[in-house]
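Hi F.,

I've been meaning to write this up properly since the lab meeting, where we talked about keeping a consistent format for the predictions we share between groups. The idea is simple: the sequence comes first, exactly as it goes in, then the structure tokens exactly as they come out, then a line or two of notes. No screenshots and no reformatting. I'm using this chain as the first example so we have something concrete to point to.
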Amino acid sequence: MPKYNLTNEQLYDIKEAYCELICDSMDYKSMEQFVFQTLMSDYENYNQDDIFDEIELTMCDVVLQELIDNLEDVAVVDNNTTTVYSLDDNETITFPIHTK
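Output, unedited:
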């Protein structure tokens, strides 16, 4: 094959045409599997906060809660814990502690 010196626009056009050929050659199930594998690959390195944010932004917090509810034995972090600090004798202040 001869060497070519394509412009950025020509290279983009080649990539776009190739993607269209691939999509046109796929049936519904093949395309669905490809999208699933691509998404799983994209989300593989997300931590819990990242994937929760993604789900809430893409879907909503109700969907996130439903997905969590479908899991078994999920530990819940109690965000309502309090810490008591002493001020003077017989004086205290109490406030909630939020952890991430």
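Notes:
The radius of gyration is 26 Å.
The longest helix spans residues 8-25.

If this format works for you, I'll send the rest the same way.

G.
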